[in-house]
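Take a look at the protein record below and tell me what you see:
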Amino acid sequence: MSNKKRPFNLYVFESASTGDPTGKDDVLLRYNVNGIELNADGFDKLSKEIHLESLVCDLPEFREGKIKLHTGKYPTATGKYQRLVIREDRIHVVAPNDFSMVRRTDTPYYEVCTHPLLFEYIENLT
């Protein structure tokens, strides 16, 4: 992944079972370069503290397919409001021998986004 230009800083994968019938050898793998991961409990708590608008966007300059985003504004100490953008994606199951994608799970993960073009896109929508 390091030799590909990626628009996001965090990706979460699950290693497919290697023959263990109990599935206990499955493990989560993270590719995280200066990313900010928000766990599900943290996302739930945040969504109760500030109003988050959910968007499903088609942004070909970021990646093929739809991207689910959550955005809202929160007050800073100076009294101004700051925009927050969170990407929701599903954990992908990858083959342990070559990391090829096997399938997507129903389990989400959340990344606090910082890409300037993404903020520009969101500002143009709202």
